[in-house]
Specification:
Helix content of chain A: 55-70%
Order of helices and strands of chain A: HHHHHHHHHHH
Shape of chain A: elongated
Radius of gyration of chain A: 21 Å
Number of helices of chain A: 11
Oligomer: homodimer
Largest sheet of chain A: none
CATH topology of the largest domain in chain A: Tetracycline Repressor, domain 2
Structural class of chain A: mainly alpha
CATH class of the largest domain in chain A: Mainly Alpha
DNA sequence: GGAATTATTGACTGGTGAGTCAGTAACCTT
DNA sequence: AAGGTTACTGACTCACCAGTCAATAATTCC
């Protein structure tokens, strides 16, 4: 009977390809480099992938698919937090989950960030998806009287996405995972103050939320496990497991 | 006697190279494409540049040099605004000047954004320069009691730079120059609210600055010409004039 | 018009690397 | 052990393109 494919071959190629693409970009990466590092042959590479670009696209598309399961739209939630302290806790959890995911996939994030020319659409797809979801949250917050509705939701989404994008960039360039939760607490406080309606701000002050207490690690991440999600099926095209 | 060099040849090559590099990145750009569009020969290209990469670096370094003259550190200013309304006006002018400069040089900005692999240092240099200047302003604002000094200046600089970076990105992807001043007014209001000390916020409220009035175009850009700068020599390596 | 000199040209060279494919290895069945 | 089938190998092909350089053009002076 026939030879059985090596089950780890494609995984090794994808993992190594991710690293080489992250370092050098699609055009700077050599198939020879990928296959040498993965201890496979070029023939094996072309057995699993149509082309170098095909491999690149598979990595990025798998990542984008999993991102959709991490960064969810308001309509994917059955219930939403009502009180001031719950709102803060809710956002810290979501933000930390998102940054944790990006940290675990920082090679792919670097790959996506480097997409240009005829692969620019992949970076565009990533940004558009994140922006759209962020905007949906902004519009809901405005509708619920938590965020200043005179502000352009498009502009607010731009600013918030840009700020978090740069946070992510700073995180990824660190050799070790930095104190993300600390960063997120200050960031959330700034945006709540900058965007929140007087109603929300009063509620947050009453709950002493914008001071150190509720934003403290002990009252946030200790109680609720990070990465808990609900209501949506897990990613179907997760080829590369996240790793540290 | 000898043949006189064509004075416009290098300019044409630089201008066209900028466009091709912006579209396809350094590695995707072909010298043949550049020279054909510029109506020059490859020999002429190599007469003016050591290599394709040399041309790329000349464009980016000239841009970074001019950026230093646009986005100045606090210590480059003789006087700084004191009152609430003056602070707002000051920042709107500076922000508009910066975005105007980036708009005029949007091809180069796209080039820089695409730097990766062994050219990543150019993007790093750009980001570091902007970040460092932003952080200097943040620290001065904190020292002058205008900005919450409990906040990490590094984090604030990260968030502000990230937000404005994304604004810039949105602007650049527009076929026509969008209403930058409108964007900047809302952005500045959000960050002043998010970061300002109670003292500054009271002063701004007293001057009705965070409402539509002082942020109105008629009281800002009409009085003070944009792009006015002082005290620092103009860029020495400005090869490519800015254009629309 | 010819000479001397410098600028410019674009056919050409040589290196690179994506992708191919004939040969070999690994598997199971007979 | 041999046969049939599929996975895998890595030398090889060939297209591509950065960079070169012999030939030509353009200039001024005599």
């Amino acid at each position: 009977m026939a030879r059985i494919p090596d089950p780890t071959a494609k995984i090794a190629l994808l993992r190594t390809a991710t690293d080489v693409f992250a370092e050098r970009g699609l055009e700077g990466a050599k198939v020879e480099d990928i296959t040498r590092r993965a201890r496979q042959s070029k023939g094996a590479f072309y057995l699993h992938f149509q082309s170098k670009e095909d491999a690149f696209r598979q990595v990025v598309e798998a990542f984008l698919a999993r991102l959709a399961d991490i960064y969810k739209s308001p309509k994917d939630f059955e219930t939403l937090p009502a009180s001031g302290a719950e709102v803060v806790r809710f956002w810290l959890e979501r933000d930390e989950q998102m940054l944790e995911f990006l940290w675990q996939n920082r090679s792919v994030v670097t790959m996506v960030a480097g997409c240009q020319g005829q692969n620019a659409y992949l970076l565009d797809a990533f940004r558009l998806e994140v922006r759209r979801t962020c905007r949906a949250w902004v519009e809901l917050s405005q509708k619920r009287g938590m965020m200043d509705s005179k502000l352009s939701s498009e502009l607010v989404a731009t600013l918030v996405c840009g700020a978090y994008d740069e946070l992510c960039r700073q995180m990824i360039r660190s050799p070790r995972k930095p104190p993300i939760l600390d960063w997120l607490r200050q960031t959330l406080a700034i945006f709540l103050r900058g965007l929140g309606t007087p109603t929300l701000l009063r509620a947050l002050d009453r709950a002493h939320v914008l001071q150190a207490r509720v934003l403290d690690a002990k009252t946030t991440s200790a109680k609720t496990p990070v990465n808990r999600s609900r209501g949506v099926a897990v990613s179907r095209r997760s080829l590369r497991p996240t790793y540290e």
